[in-house]
Structure formats: structure tokens, C-alpha cells
Amino acid sequence: NAFRLGTYDEVIDALLTAGWNRDIGVVVLQGAGGKAFGVGGDSGDKKDQRRGRGTIGVPVEGIHAAIRDIPKPVIAKVQGYAIGGGNV
């Protein structure tokens, strides 16, 4: 459940796709496995180009904007740790 740089774009795309699909009533975010909802960035990601805004330079703001902007409720099904991305 660590974020690679490409994960940000994948999550944003999934949020926007589900958020504007009339057949979907609610978006539920959930981590894989049972130990952690999210553990922050993948420190082993060699493609980490730091292209976001803010002091850490990752595009997490795009995920936050997508959650705010879609016309559906977004529920985080948190099981275990929730670290990084503003979750701490």
C-alpha cells in the first residue's frame, strides 16, 4: 500500500472515473491486505521525480482535489495503519 509516483495518477483517474459514472453511488477507498490502509510513499521508487506542489513535492494535492470535486460521497475504509498523504 505504498505510493509510487504513478500511483497518484492512477488514483486520481479512478476517482474521476467513478465520481462521474452515473451507475456508481459512492466511492470507497480501501487498502489491500489487513495491516495498513496506506503507508506513504514508496522509498524504493527510482522514478520519483518530485513533481507536486508544497514542501514534499508529490502530487497528493491532486488526489485531495479529486475527492473534493467529484459529486459523490467518498468513504475511506481504514483498516490498520494510515501513514503519509495527510493521514497521520
Give the topology.
Layout: H1 5-19, E1 27-30, E2 36-39, H2 60-69, E3 74-77, E4 81-83
Q: Secondary-structure element sequence? A: HEEHEE
Overall geometric form:
globular
Q: Please give the radius of gyration in angstroms.
A: 13 Å
Widest sheet, order of strands:
1-3
Q: How many extended strands?
A: 4
Structural class: alpha/beta
Low-pLDDT ranges: none
Could you please describe the fold and organization of this structure?
Helices cover about 30% and strands about 15% of the residues. The chain is of the alpha/beta class and about 90 residues long. The protein has one domain (about 5-85). α1 packs parallel to α2. The longest helix has 15 residues, at about 5-20. It starts with a helix and ends in a 5-residue tail after the last strand.
Features:
88 residues; alpha/beta; two-stranded parallel ribbon; 2 helices; 4 strands; 17% strand
Question: How would you concisely characterize the structure shown here?
Answer:
The radius of gyration is 13 Å and the shape is globular.
